[in-house]
Design goal:
This protein is α/β, with parallel strands linked by helices. It is built from 13 helices and ten strands.
Length: 348
């Protein structure tokens, strides 16, 4: 079961309500969510059953770089069998603000692992303590490390590396197509985005201002610091994200620039503007009713790919919200199979 966005958000905003959580519907009505249900589902906004995959018995952890006094690590779930194996580099979501490398889209990763792929899930420095330039360097360096060190450390085939991610990790997956050379063999983007200066991010979110109380700026800023970090929980940093969305300032906080006053500064971080005829094959998966990242973000990417003549697949999941919450198990299995098959074909 995947949990709608309002559930985790209410948990973040109602940490001190021991008897339950209250959410507001668009018509002003209220409903109560039992706290034990929310606590059981806590952390499922972006990924489903990530910890299940994290218990995969062959997991090894490597430090792929150090930056700003922080060790950036990578969990490698080694494929079974002898010989070189293709690798899928996974990038977790969390609005670039929270999340950990343990957050993996389990059904997708499991399907790839069963087919003989090694899964490598990476850290990156989180915003706003780190800005977009530093985060992009982390993505580039992780990819380069897999190709350079993977063959000797976990039998990686350096010529068969794909990149995949969800939500903000999907955005970084798109950016991997811009940053990484040689380019990945394929990209898989789960409910991601390519436009970080559009009105959906630069204007206050009606959704987050309607269903949730406004977050106090002091409370929001109390959740962040000055020292770079690579792991941040939704519980500890969720209010900061909600404040950014309620006020339309997420781009300002992750780059440190105002997109209205300095639009040129965002140019390098708009991956759809950098798609060219050499772009990797790409599969995009998005919930039709996504309230956090509009499904049009994946549709726009598909249009750009089609214009450039790039092989791609757009999968819109009917009735699903962010994280594919609300989709049936049958639909989720279908998506898993189609997305994994697309990547596996490109990795042959």
């Amino acid at each position: 079961m995947r949990i709608p966005l309002c559930v985790w958000a209410n948990h973040v905003l109602a940490r001190d309500r021991p008897r339950g959580l209250i959410a507001r519907s668009r018509d002003g009505g209220r409903y109560q969510l039992r706290s034990e249900v929310v606590l059981a589902s806590f952390g499922m906004m972006l990924m489903a059953a990530g910890p299940g995959f994290a218990q995969y018995p062959s997991r090894e952890t490597f430090t792929f770089k150090k930056a700003d006094g922080v060790a950036l690590e990578m969990d490698v779930y080694r494929a079974k069998g002898e010989g070189r194996h293709p690798v899928v580099l996974w990038i977790h979501g969390g609005a670039l603000i929270f999340g950990t490398r343990m957050d993996i889209e389990y059904p997708f990763a499991a399907a790839l692992s069963e087919a003989g792929c090694t899964i490598a899930s990476m850290d990156y420095r989180l915003a706003p303590e780190a800005k977009l330039p530093e985060i992009m360097v982390d993505v580039r360096d992780a990819y380069a490390w897999v190709r350079a060190e993977g063959p000797s450390r976990f039998n990686a085939d350096p010529d068969r590396v794909a990149v995949a991610g969800a939500s903000a990790g999907g955005y970084l997956t798109l950016m991997a197509g811009v940053l990484c050379r040689p380019r990945p063999r394929a990209l898989a983007v789960y409910y991601g985005y390519g436009d970080i200066v559009g009105s959906w991010l630069t204007e206050p979110s009606e959704h987050y201002r309607t269903i949730l109380p406004l977050v106090d700026e002091i409370e929001a800023n109390n959740e962040i610091g000055t020292t770079p970090i690579v792991n941040g929980s939704l519980r500890d940093r969720g209010k900061f994200y909600l404040f950014c969305r309620q006020h339309g300032i997420w781009p300002n906080r992750v780059l440190g620039k105002d997109p209205q006053k300095d639009p040129e500064a965002f140019g390098p971080y708009l991956p759809l503007k950098h798609i060219d005829p050499e772009w990797p094959p790409m599969v995009l998966i998005h919930g039709e009713l996504d309230h956090d990242v509009p499904a049009d973000q994946s549709r726009l990417a598909a249009v750009a790919l089609k214009k450039a003549g790039i092989k791609h697949r757009l999968i819109i999941v009917p009735g699903a919200d962010h994280g594919l919450a609300g989709a049936s198990e049958q639909e989720l299995q279908k998506v898993r199979s189609e997305a994994a098959a697309f990547v596996l074909e490109a990795l042959r």
